[in-house]
Amino acid sequence: MKHLLPELPYAPDALAPGMSRETIEFHYGKHLQTYIDNLNRLIEGTPFADCSLDEIVRRADGAVFNNAAQTWNHTFFFLTLTPHQAPMPEKLAARLSEAFGSVENFLSEFTKAATGLFGSGWAWLTEDMDGRLSIVQTQNAGNPMTSGLTPLMTVDVWEHAYYIDYRNRRADYVAACLRLIDWEKVSGRLK
Ligand code: MN
């Protein structure tokens, strides 16, 4: 199957000032599009051509994995953002408090994981088979599904994600992302 750029549920300038139109144009419009184009080119004529994106991420390695996982991760990231952040649903707040002591503590631990990740990668909130929530860091294109975890939310901390708007200030970018997360979507992904 041919993989396509996902449609954003908001206008390209709707996340500003936290995430500018220019960042969306480059990060979503160019970086993500390139991963998708590379993936389509790499899987053509291989058994992966008939696989879902999830299957490719779970089974591939090398360049196919890198481009498939970057397609998956970015799609998940952009579709979890909203210009109209609503208060966190009680169900999610209760689960986060149970796992991390409080919602505030979760936000602080997640921020630490996202800002502290060395080099390029992703910070995630995940749920395991037993419903245990964890904060996970992955390097480069890494995706927690390859460790049997279900992603609930992610923040991209590759430099290309924040250099246009924040230059080297990754912490300011992470704080802005946390104000753009659609908590209702995150909550809806809980088992
Ligand atoms: Mn990115």
* Rg over CA atoms: 16 Å
- Strand arrangement across the biggest beta sheet: 2-1-3
The CATH architecture assignment of the largest domain turns out to be: 3-Layer(bab) Sandwich
Major beta sheet, specifics? 3 strands, antiparallel
Measured as a percent range, the helix fraction is 40-55%
- The end-to-end span amounts to 28 Å
Question: How would you characterize the overall build of this protein?
Answer:
- The model has no long low-confidence stretch (mean pLDDT 98).
- Helix content is 50%, strand content 11%.
- It is mainly α.
- A three-stranded antiparallel β-sheet has the order 2-1-3, sandwiched between helices.
- A hairpin with a 5-residue loop joins strand 1 and strand 2.
- The chain has eight helices and three strands, in the order H-H-H-H-H-E-E-E-H-H-H.
- The longest helix is centred in the N-terminal third of the chain and has 23 residues.
- It is globular and about 50 Å long.
- The protein has two domains: 59 residues, Fe,Mn superoxide dismutase (SOD) domain (Helix Hairpins); 99 residues, Iron/manganese superoxide dismutase, C-terminal domain (minor pseudopilin epsh fold), CATH 3.55.40.
- The protein binds manganese (II) ion.
- The site of manganese (II) ion has 7 residues, from helix 1 and helix 6.
